[in-house]
Design a protein that fits this description.
Layout lengths: L1 H6 L2 H19 L24 E4 L6 E4 L3 E4 L3 E5 L7 E6 L10 H14 L7 E6 L4 E3 L4 H5 L3 H19 L5 E5 L2 E3 L1 H7 L3 E5 L3 E3 L13 H9 L1 H10 L3 E2 H6 L5 E3 L7 H13 L4 H14 L4 H15 L3 H12 L9
Parallel strand pairs: 5-6, 6-8, 7-9, 8-10, 9-11, 10-13
Antiparallel strand pairs: 1-2, 3-4, 4-5, 11-12
Length: 339
Amino acid sequence: MAVAASAAPGALGTLQASRARLVAACCARLGPRWRLPGSWTCPRVDSTICARGWTPAAGGAAWQRGYSAEVKTEDELRVRYLEEENRGIVVLGINRAYAKNSLSKNLIKMLSKAVDALKSDKKVRTIIVRSEVPGIFCAGADLKERAKMSSSEVGPFVSKIRAMINEIANLPVPTIAAIDGLALGGGLELALACDIRVAASSAKMGLVETKLAIIPGGGGTQRLPRAIGMSLAKELIFSARVLDGQEAKSVGLISHVLEQNQEGDAAYRKALDLAREFLPQGPVAMRVAKLAINQGMEVDLVTGLAIEEACYAQTIPTKDRLEGLLAFKEKRTPRYKGE
């Protein structure tokens, strides 16, 4: 593809070269052993069995893996690796009840470390982001902490929030935000970074930053228009309007809306149902499908189709593809290994 692009004259050659670079960059996101069609090879799967839990190592910033079913990073973020029929599903549970799950420096640091560990864990198939505080998803940035910052500190702090949310958006596996309560400002931006959003009808969602004479700084001005369209996104940001679950569903902000149950976790239960639907599918296919969609939506159709071709090519040499064909022939459930 790159050779053909370099040989093409003028503007057409420039366009084709640009597309080739975008496709190459897309393949690079898959890892060092992925190649463009014609030179691709199957990725080597690490023979080390990934642990299903991780905890901070004693006395330092480095993290180490463990084997507990539930791991606590202090108490503000709980990471649970589900077992048995839910194996492969990881739940990130935010637990800052006293601060309405607001995004503090510490919580942002813990979320970043959690995401960093999850993105390289081949055993992880789907990630659910939820709150463990009834009635709250995330109230946004910790404004009490923000009030103590100097003007020179605010920008770097917001950059860290944006970077953490981008890390969630760039996770290679499907992500689901389970919104069972209030999701304002950075809390909604966190949900917007997930692939799928589900909410209880009683949940409240909005980008309300203009009320504070600022704008959304965690990706909201970019992801909300991509989710619901530019005009409506402008209307919601300009007005700082807060939507309930039914309203959010009607404008396309969320995929599913549920009546809240007595336990207060209707959205989480729906997210878990969706995650279970994803589990039987081929792990490599799920990752490259997400990449093809995400990258393709940012470019023109022709380049997007080239990205799809490159991503499809990565599934051809996999053992999982052969297993899928064999299972179909033998009329049984495939046993995919992510290889």
